[in-house]
Amino acid sequence: NPAIDETTLRTMVESEILAEEELKKINVLAGEMENALIFGKKYESDLERYAGGLYDFIQTNVVDGAGSLPLTIDLIDQTMDNLDELGAFDDPMANYVLYVSPAVYKKFKNMQETEIEKQDNAVLGALKPLTISTTKGEFPIISHRRIPSGDILIVNLTDISLKTFRELKQTDWNDNGRDAYTSQMICEKTFQIKNEEKMARLLNLKLN
Questions:
Q1: CA 87, 134, 199, 128: dihedral to nearest 10 degrees?
Q2: CA-CA distance, 198 to 83, in Å (whole number)?
Q3: How far apart are the C-alpha atoms of 46 and 180, rounded to whole Å?
Q4: In the chain, where do the E strands start and end?
Q5: What is the helix (H) or strand (E) element at residue 84, kind and residue range?
Q6: Among 12, 19, 145, 205, which residue's CB has the most CB atoms within a 10 Å radius?
Q7: What are the two backbone dihedrals, phi and then psi, of residue 185, each rounded to the nearest 5 degrees?
Q8: Cα distance between residue 196 and residue 156, in whole Å
Q9: Local confidence pLDDT in tens for the 208 residues of the chain
C-alpha cells in the first residue's frame, strides 16, 4: 500500500475528530435549541442576535388563570374551538402539540377521563408521548422541565421552521508546531414562527 503523507493523515484524523465532536454536541445543542424556541428573548446589537421564543411570540390567545382557573379537559376543548374559529385547523398539515410543565403533565396523566390515553410503544419498548383527545382531534403532550408549573403552550409545529444564517464552519488555530491543535465549530441558526394567532398560551392554571 502506498504510504500516507502527513498532511493527508492529519486531514483524516481531523475529519474523524470533527465528526465525533459533532455527535457529542447533538444532544446538548438540541436541548439548547428547544430552550431557545420556547423561552428565547428577542435581542439584536452590532455583535449579537437572539430570536424571540414562543412565550414572547404568542400574544393573541393568552389566558392567565391567575392561579384560580382550574385545568380541565373542557378548558382545552374551548381553547381548541377558539383556535379553530381563527382558522387553525383549515390547513390539513397542521401538527399541534401541547408543551406543558412537569406538574401539568402529571395532572393530565393522573386524570381519569377517557380522553387521556396512555400508550406503550411495543416496537421500541419506550413510552409514546401522552396524548389528549379534544373536540378537534388527538394531540401529543410534551413535558418540559423549565415551563412554569401551571403553564401550557399550544403550538402548531407546521408553522415553525429552522433557518440558517451561517452554515457550520470549523476554524483551526495552529499551535506553533506542537503535537496539539485547537479548533472551534461555529454556526448560526434561528427559528421562524408564523401564524401566532393560531397558537395559544395558558398561564398560571390551578392544578389542585
A1: -130
A2: 6
A3: 34
A4: 43-44, 49-50, 62-64, 96-100, 116-117, 120-121, 126-127, 130-134, 137-143, 152-156, 160-173, 182-193, 200-203
A5: helix 73-85
A6: 205
A7: -115, 130
A8: 9
A9: 455 555 665 565 666 766 776 677 667 777 788 888 899 887 777 777 677 889 999 999 999 999 999 999 999 999 999 999 999 999 999 999 999 999 999 999 887 544 455 554 444 444 456 889 899 999 999 999 999 999 999 999 999 988 887 777 777 666 555 566 666 777 777 888 899 999 999 999 999 8
Quick one: cell of 194?
Answer: 408564523
Cell of 93: 398539515
Q: How far, in Å, are 14, 176, 183 from residue 180 at the CA level?
A: 11, 9, 10
Radius of gyration of the chain, Cα coordinates, nearest whole angstrom:
23
**What are the beta bridge partners of residue 63?**
202
Give me the DSSP letters along 91-150.
Answer: STT--EEEEE-HHHHHHHHH--STTEE--EETTTTEEPPEEEEETTEEEEEEE-TTS-TT
β-strand 182-193 against 130-134: which pairing, if any? unpaired
Placement of cell 409545529 in the chain: 157
Query: What is the pTM for the complete model shown?
Result: 0.75
Closest by CA position to 96, among listed 140, 61, 57: 140
Cell of 205: 392554571
CA neighbor of 198 nearest in space, from 6, 59, 36, 10 = 59
